[in-house]
Amino acid sequence: MTENQERVGRRLIVTGGAGFIGSNFVRHWCQTYPGDRVVVLDALTYAGNRQNLADLEEKANLRFVKGDICDRSLVDGLLKEETIDTIAHFAAESHVDRSILGPGAFIQTNVVGTFTLLEAFRHHWPTLSTGDGQRPLFLHVSTDEVYGSLGPEDPAFSETTPYAPNSPYSASKAGSDHLARAYYHTYGMPTVITNCSNNYGPYHFPEKLIPLMCINMLLGKQLPVYGDGQNVRDWLYVIDHCRALDVVINKGKPGETYNIGGNNEVKNIDLVKTLCGLMDEMATELPAKPCEKLIAFVKDRPGHDRRYAIDATKIKTELGWEPSVTVEEGLRQTVEWYLTHRDWWEPLLSEEYQSYYRQVYSSGEE
Ligand code: NAD
Ligand code: DAU
């Protein structure tokens, strides 16, 4: 698109738009393209939270629909009624530890749900009138975990790295990626797949490493580090991920895959110690200080992938995206967010959450 060419608005369904990345994406999209129509389709599972969108609910162009992506007639109805041209598909069961406790929901939402959306869009997108410049698109948001685990000296995952998923979660995401890919090759449906590294930032559900550590520090609870703490993740600030998805939606090529990463490989134990230092410095009151004394090495996650790292050269060279937030800045902003949003996270520590927590962490220290 040249600078003086007017942008043609999009009409999107954002599945999983009440979750962590989905809600950050909806906020990014509504602020960047206020004229676009955004329909959030979210089942509000334990990980979905309408509060994540509370500041946006007044927007005339935003509609929230509580519903399951596996419900074909609901999806068909929304696509037609809203003349949707873009599906940004985030909805998933997303937590590895929960997939180990119960893989069934992961197969249902991640595989069957994605299949349902692909089938619905396959019948819908040819009915759109594209003469006015609209570009129908199915964006399938996926993960670097589909590539498996790296050794310390291995090169980072590229778009051509063979799939080798190791957990029920990553296997279900791999299955859904293959379906999205097949719909392009078989039916010519405009799908794009993105595989992203670990996100962090505001609205991150308490069960994941960074929010769990921040919240436990504020409650004076143990900071459970799995195994020897030497596992490596490549951290990306969620707003940078949303910027990358924006670029992919607007400039990505159908049928392509784009890896998205933060260029920030950090060992878990180092990350936790950094968070401890930030919390000691930034919190006015803490039940236990220094926070490092709360660190406990606990039983490892079964099948725990040792290292993830993303090679994001393709999205940089072809679409011009690169991360803008350093891990130092991003972690500081994130600690600040958890310090100032106790009213957001406290209600999430529900009985269901406590019961999940006991199941994962009850075996105690190593
Ligand atoms: P999340 O668990 O925070 O949110 C998932 C959302 O999907 C929730 O709002 C939930 O209510 C909704 N949902 C679940 N099942 C549904 C169903 N059957 N129908 C409709 N809605 C349903 O997840 P997240 O961390 O925001 O991840 C979003 C996507 O990004 C996922 O596809 C995940 O695999 C992918 N991803 C996440 C990360 C990460 O670090 N969090 C990294 C790479 C890729
Ligand atoms: O890589 C992308 C993936 O990142 C996404 O696809 C997933 O949806 C997302 O949940 C995330 O998966 P991880 O398993 O890497 O994230 P998690 O926050 O659960 O764990 C990060 C690392 O920290 C991992 O090595 C396990 C470790 N960990 C985690 C928890 C919750 C601990 O040591 N202790 C903990 O209590």
Task: Explain briefly what this protein structure is.
The chain has 12 helices and 13 strands.
Which properties best describe this structure?
single chain; 366 residues; 7-stranded parallel beta sheet; two-stranded parallel sheet; 15% strand; binds 2'deoxy-thymidine-5'-diphospho-alpha-D-glucose
Would you give an account of this structure?
By secondary structure, this protein is α/β, with parallel strands linked by helices. Helix content is 40%, strand content 15%. It has twelve helices and 13 strands. It has helices spanning 20-32, 72-81, 96-101, 104-124, 168-187, 209-219, 238-251, 268-282, 313-319, 327-340, 342-345, 351-361; strands spanning 11-15, 37-42, 62-66, 86-89, 137-143, 191-196, 199-200, 223-226, 232-234, 236-237, 257-260, 265-267, 295-298. Helix 2 (72-81) runs parallel beside helix 4 and helix 6 (209-219) packs across helix 10. The relative contact order is 0.13. The model has no long low-confidence stretch (mean pLDDT 96). Bound molecules: nicotinamide-adenine-dinucleotide and 2'deoxy-thymidine-5'-diphospho-alpha-D-glucose (DAU). Residues 15-16, 18-22, 42-45, 47-48, 68-70, 90-92, 94, 109, 113, 141-143, 173, 196, 198-199, 205 line the site of nicotinamide-adenine-dinucleotide (NAD).
